[in-house]
């Protein structure tokens, strides 16, 4: 059962809980507490993937989210997930993982030929190789690049899991659960602050899990457990494991992603897979630790070469050493700990190669072979380390056999989150690292993230930052006994790359960027660090150069003869680690992408078998097919014919409805509408037109006067929100002196249009008898409060169809009862429900403009509504509508169009050309805005805007539609196709 | 003549079917639709705010809240929803013709519109109610930050929301536009499922 490379004892794994998993189909076993990387290491699997460009064999470099190499595909089927870091993927029983970017197999990969072709694949090769001939781009280069690009494969099926978004609020957000973060959380938590401690790992402790440190004389992990227990006992402290803070945003907002159930094969029923958090914090303590960097030398990317700190993680935390005979290459004291820990774990240490002349004395007692002033120049072995070449200060090369090499190039404080609001990190010469510069408001940085690289410093800084954050939130200072821990500084003498190396020496493993690429970029003029990034791709992709960036820019500084501080860093942007699209979308996908609005008759319409159409946020009935009808057109023709011949009903609850009240309500309406409403009598409705400030039409609708100081406005469905916003703006900003109040009542009322010659007969059966509905008593444009079915409603005599028609409003809870009652009352005539299609046909037959015409590009004059622009008063849009270009008589103006061949179909969007004119933009005379098949006329009809259209009645033009191969000769006519004299409105 | 009496449809009709949903066991959340509330929007007329405060005090015995708070006397509540704006609600015998009654009493000082049918109103309580609400409501609902009697107008799942904290149980009252009842319900169901929830009616 025990994996061949697993140490016999130790580690923070649960040996009582074995887990089986497969990698590339091969069965292995690990333990609870393993990551995929540690379990593979315990099984002696070193080759994990192939690199992006050269397809070089790659292993595991790190033990965290900074991993550039060990990217794998997890799971299978719809849950397949590419480019996941094996170093953070928690093992579970039945775990399935596969390598990427290799064919036909990981060990034998055809693409590895790129490694031999690397001369042609240097930095900027896209820009050089694929420049010419230009026609090759679309046919050859782009498909080639697309096929070669990317590593893993996304699942093609819909993700079966649920994701969530959530909000959290706290006084102090502590980012990172290592020694500094734990102390910060404790200091703030004991003070009584609301604390959130977010840690990326599934286990708190940070580096303490990977090291053999003692605190207060106890093993570090024991100390962690005690602090964790106290934090858990504090009611205002919330510990969020598996949670990465991904970004810092304005006003103390932090983005985070919680991997709620990534550690299980399938999330438990009702639980999300991941949850993205917006955390609002008054103060934050960044205790994100530090990230180790490598050194560039020949073949430093071979499987088995790993960062020294990561090697300690695998030895100490996972009992899964990276090899049986380990060499260590370091430029600092910290690398020596790996040798010491390996030695203590009983692993043979082949040698410690320290590039410095004076190694730290405290490790001398280990009795390990030490080479000082020496550097590793080359790694032997193809798919795993076999031996290394070490070159000493005299230039002599010695070969040392080993199966793993731990490298430490020093530590980079994880300054990322300090930079998300524009802060720039500062080069710290003694530390040979960037430390935070100006940090975001409300943020304190503690511990290694701030360049404090000893345990004692981290613990102290954590307490100080946590206490300060709490004090700033108004809490007292809590008493804390400072834990005692080792405080030995780690000296470092920078070494970025080994000059003597001949083979490829990698800086950015994920993007296959070598030191030569950096030198070449500089030579070709890309010496700005931001240009270097774009030209070489250094620091791009999933790891965003966490390991590579500082080394890369230090090498750039070297080749360009500048100081590192002068070169600076690239911009750090969120997210700190990759975020899945699922987490970004949360609940809002599919039918929940955005809220859907349903009108009160929706359930009834569903029962009728209606076909629905999205109309903004609304779902409206488009038409109501009946058995035997062969297509939508037949249905719509029937709905129109029945309405015009008898009666039809349509749910118009979706219209915007606004109540406008106040002593100045009439004045207000006169200013927002082009026409006058102050003269409207109580109990009457009027059609109104609104312009934007720039003189173009914004919206139309009807407004009724319910009382001397009270109006009821309707807007189009599409513009309801915009009109409300416009009215509020006009009142609050332009004319705050007016006594006017407005409130949306769109949701309060169910509103039905009942149209057709029998509409009054239907209403007569519904509206209380005491209300006289005769034409004389309740004429066109009348508006009245009535009772219907025993409840109070409103009745308006309004028509969009051109028929005698009414709009009946009832409180929304009665909308369902009303539509059923209307249908029952109309059955004898007969009655039909009609949808948005028939609505459109009838308004086109009547030449009424709608959204297709009120498209933001046309003026009232263009729409034939110039007469509605009052000359007696001022109103919004009046002045700018008078601009000469808008008054140009040649502007396309509304007209009707009929196909000369009456069988021909018209298409909205077709452009008008004079007969015989070539189809060019210069000859364009306007365009068709709306078309419909008119069952009343028996052929297609259209509305459109045509240059001097109204003056050209009877002329013919071409309706040219190259997109759909349409080219129809049309006759220009009155846009009112049906009942031009309007006789049908009355009766 | 068809009577509509008894044919009211609640905003949750067909959706809020009583029962236990989501994770089995004790419900982390209990949801109840309020169908007995009458609502009226109130906007102070220009320069009439003080007169309005007096009129409300005289007519309903309620000090009109100056901010996002609720004030209740008997079965009538006034909730501040914006500058010079309130939503009044009534239950029981006060509910019938409520908007008209409010208009009759304070009409000279405020615009009043009936909104009784404009909203889906839900009562939410249970041990995990705050965890459920955190999945969509951006407001800090910690008892130190949002107390009984507090009101907020905000968004949930892209839907306009008024949230009131009624008591320290805690009970929250959520009001969303009626037409978006379905989408609101979908969000609430998805968010509450992991804790298990009961849908109840009075």
Low-confidence stretches of chain B: none
Strand percent estimate of chain A: 25-35%
The 3D shape of chain A can be described as elongated
Secondary-structure element string of chain B:
EEEHEEEHEEHEEEHE
The helix count of chain B comes to: 4
Which structural category fits the helices and strands of chain A?
Answer: alpha+beta
- How much β-strand is present in the residues of chain B? 25-35%
Q: Helicity range of the residues of chain A?
A: 10-25%
Q: What is the average per-residue confidence, as pLDDT of chain A, rounded to a whole number?
A: 95
Shape of chain B: globular
End-to-end C-alpha gap of chain A: 93 Å
Main structural class of chain B: alpha+beta
Structure summary, number of beta strands of chain B: 12
Radius of gyration of chain B (CA) equals 17 Å
Give the helix proportion of chain B (percent range): 10-25%
Structure description:
The complex is a heterodimer of chains A (987) and B (202). Chain A is elongated, with a radius of gyration of 37 Å. The model of chain A has no long low-confidence stretch (mean pLDDT 95). With 987 residues, chain A is α+β, with helices and mostly antiparallel strands. In chain A, helix 7 packs parallel to helix 8, helix 10 (515-523) packs across helix 12 and helix 16 (632-645) crosses helix 21 (836-845). The termini of chain A are far apart. With 202 residues, chain B is α+β, with helices and mostly antiparallel strands. Helix content of chain B is 19%, strand content 35%. In chain B, strands 1-12-2-8-11-10-9 form a seven-stranded mixed sheet. A five-stranded antiparallel sheet of chain B has the order 4-5-6-3-7. The longest helix of chain B is centred in the N-terminal third of the chain and has 12 residues, at 49-60. At the A-B interface, strand 8, strand 38 and helix 20 of A face strand 3, strand 7 and helix 4 of B.
């Amino acid at each position: 059962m025990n994996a061949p490379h697993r140490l016999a004892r130790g580690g923070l794994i649960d040996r009582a809980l074995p887990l089986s998993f497969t990698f590339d189909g091969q069965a292995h076993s690990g333990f609870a507490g393993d990551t995929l990387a540690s379990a593979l290491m315990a099984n002696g699997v070193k080759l994990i993937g192939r690199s992006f460009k050269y397809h070089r064999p790659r292993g595991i470099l790190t033990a965290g989210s900074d991993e550039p190499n060990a990217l794998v595909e997890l799971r299978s089927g719809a849950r397949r997930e590419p480019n996941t870091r094996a170093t953070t993927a928690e093992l579970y029983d039945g775990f399935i993982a596969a390598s990427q970017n290799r064919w036909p197999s990981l060990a034998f990969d055809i693409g590895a030929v790129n490694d031999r072709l690397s001369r042609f694949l240097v930095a900027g090769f896209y820009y050089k190789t694929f420049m010419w001939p230009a026609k090759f781009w679309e046919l050859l280069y782009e498909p080639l690049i697309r096929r070669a690009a990317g590593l893993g494969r996304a699942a093609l099926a819909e993700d079966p899991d649920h994701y969530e978004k959530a909000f959290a609020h706290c006084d102090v957000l502590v980012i990172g659960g290592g020694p500094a973060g734990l102390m910060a959380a404790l200091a703030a938590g004991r003070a009584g602050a609301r604390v959130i401690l977010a840690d990326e790992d599934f286990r708190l402790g940070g580096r303490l899990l990977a090291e053999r440190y003692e605190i207060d004389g106890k093993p570090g992990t024991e100390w962690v457990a005690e602090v964790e227990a106290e934090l858990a006992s504090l009611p205002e402290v919330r510990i969020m494991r598996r949670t990465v803070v991904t970004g810092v945003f304005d006003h103390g907002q932090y983005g985070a992603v919680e991997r709620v159930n990534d550690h299980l094969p399938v999330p438990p029923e009702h639980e999300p897979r991941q949850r993205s958090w917006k955390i609002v914090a008054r103060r934050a303590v960044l205790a994100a630790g530090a990230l180790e960097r490598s050194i560039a030398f020949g073949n430093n990317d071979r499987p088995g070469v790993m960062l020294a700190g990561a090697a300690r993680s695998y030895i100490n935390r996972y009992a899964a050493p990276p090899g049986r005979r380990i060499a260590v290459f370091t430029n600092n004291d910290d690398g020596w700990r790996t040798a010491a820990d390996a030695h203590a774990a009983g692993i043979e240490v082949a040698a410690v190669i320290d590039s410095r002349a004076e190694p730290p004395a405290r490790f001398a007692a280990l009795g390990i072979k030490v080479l000082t002033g020496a550097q590793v120049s080359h790694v032997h072995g193809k798919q795993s380390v076999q031996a290394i070449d070490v070159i000493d200060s005299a230039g002599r090369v010695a070969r040392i056999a080993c199966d793993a090499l731990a490298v430490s190039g020093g530590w980079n404080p994880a300054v990322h989150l300090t930079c998300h609001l524009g802060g720039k990190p500062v080069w710290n010469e003694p530390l040979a690292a960037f430390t935070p510069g100006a940090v975001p408001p409300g943020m304190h940085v503690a511990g290694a993230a701030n360049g404090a690289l000893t345990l004692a410093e981290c613990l102290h800084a954590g307490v100080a930052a946590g206490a300060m954050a709490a004090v700033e939130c108004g809490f007292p200072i809590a008493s804390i006994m400072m834990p005692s821990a080792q405080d030995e500084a780690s000296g470092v003498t920078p070494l970025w790359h080994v000059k003597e190396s001949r083979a490829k020496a990698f800086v950015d493993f994920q993007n296959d960027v070598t030191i030569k690429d950096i030198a070449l970029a500089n030579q070709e003029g890309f010496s700005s660090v931001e240009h270097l990034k774009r030209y070489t791709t250094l620091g791009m992709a999933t790891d965003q150069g966490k390991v590579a960036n500082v080394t890369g820019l230090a090498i750039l500084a070297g080749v360009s003869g500048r100081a590192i501080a002068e070169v600076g860093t690239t911009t750090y942007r969120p997210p700190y680690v990759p975020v899945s699209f699922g987490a970004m979308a949360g609940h809002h996908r599919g039918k929940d992408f955005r809220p859907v609005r349903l009108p009160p008759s929706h359930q009834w319409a569903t029962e009728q078998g209606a076909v629905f159409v999205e109309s903004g946020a609304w779902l409206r009935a488009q038409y109501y097919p009946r058995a035997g009808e062969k297509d939508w057109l037949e249905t719509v023709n029937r709905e129109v014919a029945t309405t015009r011949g008898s009666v039809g009903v349509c749910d118009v609850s979706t219209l915007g409805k606004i109540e406008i009240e106040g002593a100045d309500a009439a004045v207000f309406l006169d200013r927002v509408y082009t026409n006058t409403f102050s003269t409207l009598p109580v109990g009457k409705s009027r059609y109104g037109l609104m312009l934007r400030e720039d003189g173009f039409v914004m919206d139309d609708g009807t407004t009724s006067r319910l009382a001397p100081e009270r109006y009821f406005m309707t807007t189009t469905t599409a513009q309801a929100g915009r009109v409300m916003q416009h009215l509020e703006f006009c009142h609050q900003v332009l004319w705050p002196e007016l006594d006017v109040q407005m409130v949306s009542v769109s949701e309060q009322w169910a509103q039905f249009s009942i149209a057709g010659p029998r509409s009054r007969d239907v209403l007569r059966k519904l509206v209380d008898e005491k209300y006289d509905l005769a034409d004389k008593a309740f004429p066109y444009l009348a508006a009245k409060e009535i009772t219907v079915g025993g409840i109070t409603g409103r009745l308006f005599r309004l028509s969009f169809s051109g028929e005698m028609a009414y709009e009946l409003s009832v409180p929304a809870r009665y909308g369902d009862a009303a539509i059923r009652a209307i249908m029952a009352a109309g059955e004898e005539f007969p009655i039909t429900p009609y949808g948005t299609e028939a609505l459109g046909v009838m308004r086109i037959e009547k030449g009424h403009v709608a959204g297709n015409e009120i498209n933001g590009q046309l003026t009232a004059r263009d729409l034939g509504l110039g007469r509605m622009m009052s000359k007696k008063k001022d109103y919004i849009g009046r002045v700018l509508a008078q601009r000469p270009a808008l008054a140009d008589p040649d502007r396309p103006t509304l007209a009707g169009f009929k196909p000369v061949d009456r069988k021909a179909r018209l298409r909205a969007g077709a452009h008008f050309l004079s007969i015989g004119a070539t189809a060019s933009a210069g000859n364009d005379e306007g365009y068709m805005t709306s078309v419909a098949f008119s069952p009343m006329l028996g052929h297609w009809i259209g509305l459109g805007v045509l240059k001097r259209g109204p003056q050209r009645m009877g002329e013919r033009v071409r309706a040219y539609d190259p997109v759909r191969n349409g080219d129809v000769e049309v006759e220009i006519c009155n846009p009112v196709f049906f009942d031009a004299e309007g006789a049908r409105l009355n009766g | 003549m068809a009577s509509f009496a008894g044919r009211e449809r609640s905003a949750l009709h067909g959706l809020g079917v009583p029962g236990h949903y989501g994770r089995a066991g004790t419900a982390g959340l209990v949801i109840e639709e309020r169908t007995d509330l009458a609502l009226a929007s109130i906007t102070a007329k220009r320069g009439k705010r003080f007169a309005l405060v007096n009129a409300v005090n005289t007519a309903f015995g309620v000090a009109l809240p100056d901010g996002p708070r609720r004030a209740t006397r008997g079965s009538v509540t006034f909730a501040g929803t914006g500058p010079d704006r309130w939503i009044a609600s009534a239950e029981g015998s006060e509910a019938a013709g409520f908007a008209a009654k409010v208009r009759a009493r304070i009409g000279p000082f405020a615009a009043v519109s009936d909104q009784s049918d404009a909203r889906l109103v839900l009562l939410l309580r249970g041990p995990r109610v705050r965890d459920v609400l955190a999945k969509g409501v951006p407001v800090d609902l910690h008892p130190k930050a949002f107390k009984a009697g507090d009101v907020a107008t905000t968004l949930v799942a892209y839907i306009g929301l008024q949230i009131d904290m009624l008591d320290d149980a805690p009970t929250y009252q959520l009001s969303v536009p009626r037409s978006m009842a379905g989408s609101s319900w979908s969000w609430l169901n998805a968010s509450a499922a992991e804790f298990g929830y009961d849908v109840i009616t009075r």
